[in-house]
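Action item from last week, closing it out:
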Amino acid sequence: MSTRFTFRALVVGTALSLVISLGFSYARLALSTAGMSSDYIMAGAVFLFFALTVCLNPLLKFLRRSWGLERGELVVVYTMLIIASAIPTWGFSGNMVPMLPGLYYFATPENNWIELLNPHVRSWMLIRDAAAIEYFFEGLPEGHAVPWEAWIVPLAAWSSLVIAIYLMMIATMVLVRRQWMEHERLIFPLIQLPLDMTAEDRRDRAFGPFARSPLMWVGFFIPFILLSTKGLNHYFPQVPTPTLYTYLLIFSRSTAVEILLSFPVLGLAYFLNLDVSLSLWLFHLLAKVQMGMEMSRGYMLPGEIEKFMEGTLTVAHQGMGAMFVLVFYGLWLGRGHLKAAFRKVLRGDESIDDRDEVLSYRAAALLLLGGGLYATAWLYASGIPLWVALIFLVTAFAIFYGITRVVAEGGLGFIRPQMTAQPIVINFLGTDAVTPAGIFSLGLSFCWAGNLRIGLMASAIHAMKLAERVGVLRRALFWAMVLAIAVSLFSSLWLVVWLAYQHGGINLDWRFYQYWGKVHAFAAYKIANPVNLIDTFDIIAPRLYYTGIGAVAMGGLIWARHHFLWWPTHYLGFAVSATNMTSASWFSIFLGWLIKAVVLKYGGMRLYRALRPLFLGFILGQITCSAFWALVDFLVGGTGNFVPVFTHHT
């Protein structure tokens, strides 16, 4: 097995990263197909890796053995793909670009944005050229060129911030990698598929055991054939499509419980520990009961629903209280490792070996510190008071860290936090403390610290886990990550801008060009409706109260988990119990939990391992089907043919 970092692996990784940042982004933004770089499952990366490992690489090995990529090289390629997946569309670029001209294009006398927000605009943060703004949303007149001169400064400013954030994310994962992988032994369900796809045959055959498994192909073709009927129906309406989604109304029809069969979620659930999968579906149903009781009785916290909030105000704040306790507990649990790491940083302790990390602990700490100082200075320059900027950055990273932990341990390829950092900071510190300029800047920060469906922190730790399993966890892997960031960031920013001027942003996918262009409504509302714990006690106090309830409940669940051997469930699911993604996932997680429980009870580990390829096929089949129809749509010029990677509506 090769563990070398080769130039050709970087070339292949760069080329396929461009397919993700340009090809799949174009399909999402212009053709309105399913998002292949939208979620933590990183569907575009999985599909391209499947095409490389099962189709192209065996062909190259057949033609000449030395032409094929070895396992270590393939892991480098996959690392670049999953890093690149975290940036286009929902990761950053598709969110950020429409915000820059959106303030002035969507401003009206009714929303009063100009009066409320314009005084707080820094010249380097937004697009202010009237023609550049108009043409972005309505398309370039014939003979005009893209006005890049209006974009250079804002794009450079935002790119510098997000690069600092991404480097901080990688550094954070370097510092906790050993704790998660070697001490706590998290299972990382999302690496099971690429790990099997790179498995090499002992007889050195071109096709590995994964591609030669009949059971994998059975699992593959079940979702591929079922969902292909949806793709065909778009072009031939007479083709019937199966119904994989329904819902049940409970509590006097006030609350809906979704029932969706998602093959990727079902496949991933098979690889979870039973207590973890139990917690994910059980806590969701309990949250639905709570929400149903509230709605049927007309109980609602005072004040407006928060931007990007999931569930009701009560369960959202409970979830965030639980998330913060989850983060604190994880750091407390790893305090021994973190102390050792910082002894290495400060004293160069020779007894602590960090040679098998992608960065030395000292380099990671310096990168985290330097990136944090730059990000704080950037936020301060944008109008946020210095102490508020520090609190916001810590809160945002706590959420990133918590969600990454949930993905790594719970295998949730489709998840979002219950709330984001912005309303938490504004509500609990008060609008006067944050200041109007700070509120406006926090509203813009949704593009990188909002309710994101994918994050680079999770990509980084999964890349490290896969590299550890295969034996290529080396310093060079960090530079492969940096290369993927640069390639994906700059190419996707170019595409999002270029597409708008070619077709007119209002003619492209509304979720990006219009929804994100209008995200300034959050800041306008917060400035026009000030809050603080004293003057609006009736609004803020209940939110603090339910956040505290969530924190105490999570603490109790963690304590019970570690003190009672008979305690049946994990605590992980409580932190994300009522997100929209959990609502759509719970039924498939329940099926995966039930199937695995039955398999282990009556067939033991032998049957569990024998059925493994079937569930990997489930994951791959639906992802490949979605990518296949996106390719068909591109070739024939079709639009709006939504063959889902995950659910029926996203």
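Closing note: The chain has 25 helices and two strands.
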